[in-house]
């Protein structure tokens, strides 16, 4: 970890465990709004949202294009409600699935009250359409240069200066989402820019997604972590049954792949690979819902589902 001025406060303040509700703001007015997070794949959008919300809502893997849906995380205070939205990474579509993923990003431009545009040290972001939208929008834009712990002061300074020239009306800040560096300041700036509004959701809600959705995402995360090459990108997960009893939650889920050969890879020799996958997923689901789980996994083939609009709608994608 490089020790330069932007990052030297990490050890002193020790933001591990930081949650926005730890800070009290006194106001007679209530603020609320949608803070939409956009950026390239794998720049740390999901890590940032999980850190700001204080819960793991978005799955995180080293592979690009892990996030496929728009996921909301809600943070409440006595006089504010922040609705964060994690979105898929900005990409050039090769499948109808990618087109649906990009639609989530376009939707994020329609309802934002604040934009968090995430980049990382060393990235050369050149999507002209997105940059044009960010320049022309009347919505406040905060540019966050992430992963500064992996760079040096000179490179970070150049990135900050470059983005200030590219988006003159934006506020540009260095952060490390992984180490929660500078997130207190990010939170305060967001709160300053939120409009006055009553809350959009009940104050005890954490997200707009169902438990079935999060179970399917946990399973999909384990696929990304356990399999290589095209397997994670050719897979989708549907939770068919979710039954709660006093002693255990019984879950039945299907893993869909595009080809028969991929089914064999998911299963592994004598089913050992899918058994390992299921064990890892079950443990994380139990931790997530704080209850004992019985998880049954099956693998099915759904040919070319990434280019089939009907199947994509069934899997929960807009088109």
Unreliable stretches: 1-27
SSE string? HEHEEHEHEHEHHEEHHEH
The secondary-structure class comes to: alpha/beta
Average residue-wise pLDDT = 89
State the total count of DSSP E strands. 9
**β-strand amount:** 15-25%
What is the terminal separation in angstroms?
43 Å
CATH class of the largest domain: Alpha Beta
Provide the number of structural domains: 2
Within CATH, the superfamily of the largest domain carries the name P-loop containing nucleotide triphosphate hydrolases
Spatial shape: globular
How many helices in DSSP terms?
A: 10
Brief write-up:
By secondary structure, the protein is α/β, with parallel strands linked by helices. The protein has helices spanning 9-13, 45-53, 96-111, 128-136, 153-166, 183-193, 211-226, 260-267, 272-289, 309-314; strands at 31-39, 71-77, 80-86, 114-120, 141-146, 171-174, 236-244, 249-257, 293-301. A 6-stranded mixed beta sheet has the order 2-3-1-4-5-6, with helices on both faces. It has a 3-stranded mixed beta sheet with strand order 7-8-9.
Description:
The longest helix has 18 residues, at 272-289. The chain has helices at residues 9-13, 45-53, 96-111, 128-136, 153-166, 183-193, 211-226, 260-267, 272-289, 309-314, and strands at 31-39, 71-77, 80-86, 114-120, 141-146, 171-174, 236-244, 249-257, 293-301. Mean pLDDT is 89; it is low at 1-27. It is of the alpha/beta class. The protein folds into two domains: 9-193, Rossmann fold, CATH 3.40.50; 211-314, 2-Layer Sandwich (GMP Synthetase, Chain A, domain 3), CATH 3.30.300.20.
């Amino acid at each position: 970890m490089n020790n330069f001025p932007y990052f030297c406060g990490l050890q002193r303040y020790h933001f591990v465990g930081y949650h926005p509700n730890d800070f009290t703001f006194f106001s007679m007015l209530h603020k609320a709004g949608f803070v939409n997070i956009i950026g390239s794949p794998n720049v740390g959008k999901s890590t940032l949202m999980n850190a700001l919300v204080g819960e793991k809502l978005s799955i995180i893997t080293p592979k690009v294009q892990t996030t496929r849906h728009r996921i909301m995380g809600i943070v409440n205070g006595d006089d504010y409600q922040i609705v964060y939205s994690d979105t898929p990474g900005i990409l050039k579509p090769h499948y109808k699935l990618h087109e649906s993923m990009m639609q989530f990003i376009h939707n994020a431009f329609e309802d934002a009250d604040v934009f968090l545009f995430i980049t990382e040290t060393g990235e050369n972001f050149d999507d002209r359409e997105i940059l044009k939208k960010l320049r022309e929008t009347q919505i406040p834009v905060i540019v966050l240069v992430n992963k500064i712990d992996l760079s040096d002061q000179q490179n970070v300074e150049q990135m900050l200066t470059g983005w200030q020239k590219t988006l003159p009306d934006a506020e540009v800040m260095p952060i490390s989402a992984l180490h929660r560096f500078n997130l207190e300041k990010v939170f305060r700036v967001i709160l300053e820019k939120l409009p006055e509004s009553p809350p959009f959701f009940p104050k005890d809600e954490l997200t707009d997604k169902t438990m079935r959705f999060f179970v399917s995402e946990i399973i999909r995360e384990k696929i990304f972590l356990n399999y290589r090459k095209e397997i994670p990108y050719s897979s989708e997960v549907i939770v068919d049954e979710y039954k709660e009893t006093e002693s255990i939650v019984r879950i039945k889920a299907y893993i869909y792949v595009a080809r028969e050969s991929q089914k064999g890879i998911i299963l592994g020799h004598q089913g050992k690979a899918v058994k390992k996958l299921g064990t890892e997923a079950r443990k994380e689901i139990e931790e997530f819902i704080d209850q004992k789980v019985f998880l049954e996994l099956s693998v099915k083939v759904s040919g070319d589902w990434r280019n089939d609009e009907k199947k994509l709608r069934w899997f929960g994608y807009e088109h």
